[in-house]
Amino acid sequence: MNADYQDLVDEISALLGAPATLEDRDFRLIAFGAHDGDDAGAMDPVRTRSILTRRSTAEVKAWFERFGIATATGPVRIPADPGAGVLRARLCLPVRHRGTVFGYVWLLAGDAPVPRLPYTELADADLDAAMAVCARIGAQLADEARARADLGPHLNTLLTSDSEDRREAALTTLSGPLGAGGPYTLLCAVPWTASPPGLRTVPGASALTLVPVPGAAGPRLAVLVRLGAGADLGPAGAAAKALLASTPGPPSPTALTAAPASTAVGIGTAARTLADLPAAWREASAAARAALARPHLGPVAEWSAIGPYRLLAALPDSGPGHPVDPAVGPLLTPAHSELARTAEVFLDCAGQAGRTATALSIHRQTLYYRLSRVEQLTGLDLHDGEDRLLLHMSLKAAKL
Q1: Contacts (Cβ under 8 Å, ≥6 apart) of 92
Q2: CB-based burial of residue 49 (10 Å sphere; 0-12 exposed, 13-18 middle, 19+ buried)?
Q3: What CA–CA distance (Å, rounded) separates 303 from 307?
Q4: How far apart are CA 18 and CA 132, in angstroms?
Q5: Got the DSSP string for 335-388?
Q6: Shortest CA distance to 295 belongs to which of 260, 263, 337?
Q7: Could you give the dihedral angle defined by the CA atoms of residues 108, 103, 237 and 223, in that order, rounded to the nearest 10 degrees?
Q8: Residue 268 CA to chain centroid, in angstroms?
Q9: Would you report the helix, strand and coil content of the chain in percent, each value rounded to 5?
Q10: Strands 264-267 and 300-302, how do they pair?
Q11: How many CB atoms neighbour CB 15 within 10 A?
């Protein structure tokens, strides 16, 4: 926990006489006050989960937002609702700066007849003092948000520069507002032909940048996401879904512009430090390319789940302008697309003619004729294991 935020949360706890927690606007835990371990009334399941996992679920977030906390400028009293899993009433203090909400301070009520926090008896002066502390928290969170919004160029340098000195300088700059530790991961949205989304519109995003790729249909969008305890990729999945679910609209700092209909999002593995991000970016890019090539893998694909494409994506891009194996080249021309599809399905079916004919809805004799044409075009022997391996890899790599 950030020591500055911890001190501010403790100050609010002292003012109002109850343990407080501070979460950002996405309900990720930032700091929490000490709770009396001998008092069973000090906690409820929602707060316990927030502290243990460092965030609340989307369902919990939506439930609390029903009470208008995102637009409130003063304290909001929220009743208990056991049906929603909220066993204790709460006092929510919005953390705002210049009209924008950046987070929330939460305090729990206790059981009657002796409430831990008698909301109706709190002095206005104490509440005003607590809200003044919230304003200080809001200013600090706003400063950090502005710093993260300016990190895109440095993230781009870290991921793409050929200069070790420039990469080291970018890493130093990123480490200031983000810290050297993780875990983090990167998302790759490909292709991304719209304007970059606003940082606030992608849940969990710490930085983002457009990465041009020579010869590609469009740039790739890189999104840096901080992960929770245990390097769980859940926050990355939520950010990926937000990207794909975006709706058309003009570019603006606070509106997520539309992702193309054919966009796929890849997710790299957890990076323990910022220095590990280039490797996570290669993984995320590979996963995104695989999801585009094989729709059943996407539209959101984790690198760990793309199977043989982990190896194939490590090869040089085989799209337009990139070299392919000379034996397979003739088969990859538009004139022979049906033969290429037949060969790929045949190899996907482990060379079983019956399964292949059924998958393609053709007669076996038609299949045999097409396979003989594949052999004539390529010079490969489909009865030879290494020739089949070369053909299979080439056909898959050509789609990446």
Answers
A1: 64, 67, 69, 72, 75, 76, 77, 78, 104, 105, 106
A2: middle
A3: 8
A4: 17
A5: GGHHHHHHHHHHHHTTT-HHHHHHHHT--HHHHHHHHHHHHHHH---TTSHHHH
A6: 263
A7: -160
A8: 9
A9: 50, 15, 35
A10: parallel
A11: 20
DSSP 231: G
Reported as a pLDDT band with limits 50, 70 and 90, residue 27 is confident
Q: What are phi and psi of 320, to 5 degrees?
A: -55, 130
Closest by CA to 313, choosing from 295, 287, 281, 291, is 287
Segment 214-251, tens digit of pLDDT: 766 678 999 999 887 678 898 899 999 988 876 443 33
Which range among 32-46, 164-178, 380-394 shows the weakest confidence by mean pLDDT?
32-46
How far apart (Å, rounded) are the C-alpha atoms in residues 299 and 127? 47
Single out the residue of 188, 186, 279 nearest to residue 226, CA to CA: 186
8-state DSSP, 297:
G
The mean pLDDT of 17-37, rounded to a whole number, is 81
User: Number of C-alpha atoms within 13 angstroms, CB side, residue 359?
Assistant: 17
From the list 57, 153, 141, 52, the residue with the least C-alpha distance to 105 is: 141
Is 320 a residue whose pLDDT tops 70? no
| pLDDT tens digits for range 44-71 | 667 676 666 666 777 888 889 999 999 9
Q: What would the two tokens of residue 177 be?
A: 């507002």
pLDDT tier at 323, thresholds 50, 70, 90:
low
Using CA atoms, how far apart are residues 262 and 292, in angstroms rounded to an integer?
8
**pTM: predicted TM-score of the whole model, two decimal places:** 0.59
